Amino acid sequence: MNDLRMPGDQMEEACGVFGIYDPTRKLHVADSAYYALYALQHRGQESAGIAVADGQNVRHYRGKGLAAEVFDEDILATLTGHIAIGHVRYSTFGGSDPINAQPLVARYKGGTLALAHNGNLTNTGSLRARLEDVGAIFQTNVDTEVILNLLARMCRGAGMEEAVPRMMRAVRGSYALVLMSEGRLVGIRDPYGIRPLCLGRLGQGYALASESCAFDAIGAEFVRDVYPGEVLIIDEDGLHSLRVPTPLESRLCVFEFVYFARTDSVIDGVGVYAARKAAGQRLAMGDQVRADMVIGVPDSALPAAIGYAEQSGIPYGEGLAKNRYVGRTFIQPEQGMRENSVRTKLNALTRNVHGKRIVMVDDSIVRGTTSRKIVDMLRLAGAREVHMRISSPTVMYPCHLGIDTPSTDELIGSGRNVEEICTYIGADSLRFLSQCDLLRTVEGSGCGFCTGCFNGKYPMDIADTDEGLDLDL
Ligand code: AMP
Hints:
Elements: E1 16-21, H1 29-39, E2 47-53, E3 58-64, H2 67-70, H3 73-78, E4 83-89, E5 104-108, E6 111-121, H4 124-133, H5 144-155, H6 160-170, E7 173-180, E8 185-189, E9 198-202, E10 205-209, H7 213-218, E11 221-225, E12 230-235, E13 238-243, E14 252-253, H8 255-260, E15 266-267, E16 270-271, H9 272-284, E17 293-296, H10 302-312, E18 320-322, H11 335-345, E19 346-348, H12 350-353, E20 357-362, H13 369-380, E21 385-390, H14 418-425, E22 429-432, H15 435-441, E23 449-450, H16 452-455
Helix pairs in contact: 5-6, 9-10, 9-15, 11-13
The structure holds adenosine monophosphate (AMP).
Adenosine monophosphate binds at residues 259, 297, 300, 328-330, 362-371, 403-405.
């Protein structure tokens, strides 16, 4: 979901979505959604929301902050029904306005729709202009509302089965959606499958989630990933699948494996932990560095550090302690705050690193803020040498498809070579994993990958134009 900002200053977002349908009407589905959002919390800490439907009515509650801050038992008790959808939102500057919290809920001629979105549309401006031309009113500044408006219009006189594929023909970009009406739950994955979405089974009912770790949290069984271009409709008749035409090769975001997803999730057939560990192993291959200890930057780089240590034979140890009560560093909107938050979040284990030559493995360098601070931290703690190893290629381009990577001029890897980046972060040496090696770590998936942040090649035209827009409002 993308805030509608000026071109060039967009800070993209990745979020977490969840949905559940309980035909037995025995479960308190809002509780299940709450626990699932808890498990997906790493995908967004800005706001959380749940909407429930009972066949007649749709109720919802949303708020700023973590799921545990937004909901309590009393609030959850008011959310009764047999279908629920939920959302956790990840955003940066300008995005903290609670009006942008999801699920978005709208009443239209045919009833009520609630929608939760993970991803980012690239033709939002064109779509919004066309909708405004025919009198649509927008109350938020997120692209999800464009989808909601399109659906409300397309559902007039047509069923979901017709409306959803029509909406999918009009929008461009990435989207994993959970949609709910009074009596139906719908899961939708964009034709390239850029953002993850999977299907689970809970008793006689079904669940949908951005990541499989949400199913584990509520005792649901993972069934399969939603296919790129697939629409899953779940109602009292069970589960129906529709497929819209998809490109020849899907393009799952590889950064889900690098950083974003939780290590215990399995996405499109690949375990996130295994992929990260393999990335660390590959990073160590052919690396001649001499060092006393390999450490990882907690938490997302720890599997890669373990892999690096195993492959290189250099002992693995802990060199940084993490304060677990601080959110992900990038959610701080301004650079000053971001630098402070690195210190709040990480501290060197002086007695472990003092006098040692350290290989420090991190999963990525984006702005360079964290890396520079922690290299400095290790030196202040007495590390003799600090060799930085990154288990992904250099991030050189912004993401337009749902991950928060900043504009090109904020990316330390854009327009600088490895030596220059190394000098900036103050390390003794620096090495990145090649794109080819990164793709080998996710080979088992059988799908294609979007590597746009590394090479600027996005699966689709990212320019927001009207060209080829298939839209009859
Ligand atoms: P920096 O050195 O400031 O570029 O920060 C690198 C750190 O940010 C790494 O530890 C990554 O785990 C983390 N990171 C990478 N991508 C993102 C993102 N989209 N949002 C938040 N943190 C990220």
